[in-house]
Write a structure and sequence with these properties.
The protein is mainly α and 445 residues long. It contains 22 helices and 2 strands.
């Protein structure tokens, strides 16, 4: 008699039951919640519509200004860095106790983050190449590829933050809160130089100062050093209100078309204030959240989503593009409603259902790349120069993908091959073979 086939839910339930009692389930819940908020926010903000027979890439925040206030709730990347600090603190401390080499520890983090990206790169490289050869307008190909691959920008920043963990953890252990406030001071100084004095390009340094500051809060949380979270929530909220009301910062916590200043690209002190407020609020309700997660169904759902979280994040805009292309091929069905109108809002549940229907098979196909089997054993750790060079190659490729698209406006292939190649080369330098791993997984090995 054959055994009943195990479903995704049953597997997640088994893992949920095996979770040790001391595990902070709320950390996993926040990670899942933050990614889902990003997915919903992207699906809501992207608002294409038909005008004069052509598709216009509408942006809800630019069309309806009041919706910019919604970004204070949907821009939850600070929570992901908060959770990252908590997890990195525990992971690196454990690695030190086991005397694990930094190269092996960091290589494992890179593998978990990059493995799910590689099939996404391959699929969209093939789309850009075949779309170009088939005569599709190159601008359309580039726009579709760039929109679908926007999520990878986050990975380039997160990889750098992860690479710095031994140093930021050391600073936290030695200086405590001074390490956090020094980063806050650095972020303020960068904004003053950039916005106040007009120093060009200095604002990109805040990709480090802002996100590292939130990451330090994760260390503080992990060690139980945030004793009055409501104070942090109120302090962050008041600071954000003052920065927006009296300062030069826009309301929206993400970029808005036509705006001279973005709070997220690169991040500003306003986004840092939002992160402090969100962190304080999240920790203030932690006791209630942990009690809520005693419910096994909710905890199982959290485990299930965490097991495919990077796949959902990376592929959700590909699903969006597929639905938009299908609607366009059917004569623009559903795309003739003006964003912000009553009919447009009423149609959102239908569109969201279509996005989910398009995303589910993608998750079913590609979630396997998220199941890491561990770094290959080696006699000696990867040399530092390979780690540094691999990190530079990988992050440059990911950042360029989000900034300029893998699709090329010229050339025979229609693809910026150097952009596609960099993450593969970087991952190989850091210590695992992505091409070999991909071939094995595609073949079901």
């Amino acid at each position: 008699m054959s055994k009943p086939k195990r479903t995704l839910w049953s597997r997640a339930a088994e893992m949920a039951e095996k979770a040790p009692p001391e595990r902070n389930r709320y950390v996993d819940f926040l990670r899942a919640l933050s990614i889902m908020a990003v997915v919903v926010g992207h699906w809501l903000v992207a608002a294409p519509y038909m005008q004069d027979g052509a598709v216009v890439g509408g942006h809800l925040l630019g069309i309806i200004p009041w919706t910019q206030w919604l970004t204070w709730g949907f821009q939850v990347m600070p929570l992901f860095f908060l959770v990252g600090g908590f997890s990195h603190g525990m992971s690196w401390a454990a690695a030190q106790r086991k005397e694990q080499h930094y190269a092996d520890w960091f290589g494992g983090r890179v593998q978990r983050l990059i493995n799910p990206v590689l099939p996404l790169f391959l699929i969209w490289t093939l789309f850009a190449a075949f779309g170009t050869w088939a005569g599709v307008d190159r601008e359309v190909v580039a726009m579709a590829a760039q929109l679908a691959l926007i999520p990878v920008w986050f990975l380039s920043v997160y990889l750098v933050i992860s690479a710095l963990v031994p140093w930021t953890w050391g600073l936290w252990q030695r200086f405590g809160w001074a390490s956090f406030w020094s980063l806050v001071a650095g972020a303020i100084a960068v904004d003053w130089l950039s916005i106040g004095l007009g120093v060009r390009y200095i604002n990109f340094v805040n990709f480090l100062f802002v996100w590292l500051a939130i990451h330090q809060l994760g260390y503080a949380w992990q060690q139980g050093r945030i004793r009055n979270p409501w104070v942090w929530a109120v302090f962050g909220a008041i600071a954000l209100e003052m920065l927006v009301y009296f300062g030069p910062y826009p309301i929206a916590m993400i970029g808005v078309p036509g705006s001279d200043l973005s709070n997220s690209m690169p991040p500003t002190v306003a986004l840092l204030a939002l992160g402090i407020a969100q962190s304080g609020f999240a920790l203030a309700v932690e006791p209630a959240g942990r009690q809520m997660l005693e419910n096994m169904r909710l905890w199982t759902a959290t485990v299930l989503l965490n097991g495919m979280i990077m796949t959902v994040y990376l592929w959700h805009l590909t699903a969006f593009v597929f639905v938009m292309v299908a609607a366009w091929l059917m004569g623009g069905v559903g795309l003739r409603l003006m964003p912000g109108s009553g009919e447009w809002w009423l149609a959102r549940p239908v569109w969201f259902a279509l996005y989910i229907a398009a995303l589910l098979p993608l998750v079913g196909l590609f979630a396997r790349f998220e199941q890491v089997r561990g770094m290959p054993e080696r006699e000696s750790p990867v040399p530092l120069w390979r780690l540094v060079l691999g990190l530079i190659f990988t992050c440059t490729g990911l950042a360029a993908t989000a900034a300029i698209s893998i699709a090329s406006p010229m050339g025979v292939t229609g693809v910026r091959l150097w952009v596609v190649a960099l993450p593969f080369i970087g991952a190989a330098l850091i210590g695992f073979g992505p091409v070999r791993d991909l071939s094995k997984r595609v073949c079901g090995v």
